[in-house]
Amino acid sequence: MSTSESFQVVFAQQIAWAKTGDPEFPYSAVVDGRKYKLRVNDFPEEHMYTLLIDDQRSLDFTSWPPAWTGK
User: Fold this and answer.
1) So where are the chain's domains?
2) pTM to 2 decimals?
């Protein structure tokens, strides 16, 4: 699977994010038994968000995917 294909797969998933209360990592979710976290970056110098899966940096993005809820 290419990087762009993996982005498309993740962005198409129905993910219900929960607020964490942590300003650096404000949202988390469990997807297929894996821990997802969103980090807020130094926008606009960087992408707005970084997705971490099991504490590993997975992808950077700015636009919130429509399939995701909880924002």
Assistant:
1) 3-65
2) 0.88
